[in-house]
Write a structure and sequence with these properties.
Layout: E1 5-8, E2 21-27, H1 32-43, E3 46-49, E4 56-57, E5 65-70, E6 76-79, E7 83-87, H2 92-101, E8 104-105, H3 117-123, E9 126-127, E10 130-131, E11 136-143, E12 149-153, E13 170-178, E14 180-181, H4 184-201, E15 206-210, H5 220-226, E16 233-234, E17 237-239, E18 246-249, H6 257-275, E19 284-285
Parallel strand pairs: 2-5, 3-5, 4-19
Antiparallel strand pairs: 1-2, 6-7, 7-13, 8-14, 9-10, 11-12, 11-13, 15-18, 16-17, 17-18
Helix pairs in contact: 2-4
Amino acid sequence: MNAPQRIPWANLSTLRAGVGIVQLLQLQQDEEIFEAIQQSRREGRRLLPVGKGTNLIGSDQELPVTMLSLSAMRAMDVFDGGKVRVQTGIPLGIFVQNLATQGFGGISALAGIPGSLGGALAMNAGANGCSISEFVTEMHGIHLRSGEEWQWRKGDGGWAYRHSPLPPHVMVTTAVLELQLVDSQEETEKISAEWMRRRRVTPRGLSCGSVFRNPPNAPAGRLLEEAGCKGLTEGVFSVSQQHANWIVNASGNVGKAEDCRRLVQRMQTMVMERHGIRLEAEWRFADLL
């Protein structure tokens, strides 16, 4: 197992949020997780999983945690004519593209979602009326506190909008998804179209994606726009003029996590005052993990 690295929290956040330092351990093999658990117990540190940082806001402090990251390029095994066993460090977009080249699909609507497959499973990522939970038949992982193995199988339930049956402090390492047989060229064209659509509608600047979940019967973006949130600024972070449910870092400079948190709270307050609705953040804040 490699030695942990000490890096800025901002390096683990696609928004570049967090001026503190964090310990990161990059794993090449799933078995290294057990060694990391023993080491964390000796050092009195917590272990937390991290994917590509597409919904993570770091910290301005050095916390007693070690973030675990699985190797990005992971093997895929296709069996039973449409089931795919895959290790979860693979980026979601690459996973979808690889499936298409082998004649499997039905999941092209998710191609533009950034981050790893593991992160997508943890938050039940979705787009265009499609959610990844529709395709999952098995998940396997390890509880980072007890070291016990964890598994989920189709029929166990636990999925909901932006919610997964994956418990806190469990790192999912392998999943099985069931896909459709498709024409490779047609599926690749759908994926390309989705990537192009994403580029058109995504505000410019670094971001962590949508800030808030959509409450029942009302898109969060519309509520935020009606509350006057576009253009709000804290430090290097601002609410996009293009989409009110999107915070951007246009400069690309590292920003304080506290500035980002303050901006999120201002947005929540303004929507509550205007609409009487409490918005829930999709993001993960390192200080609250």
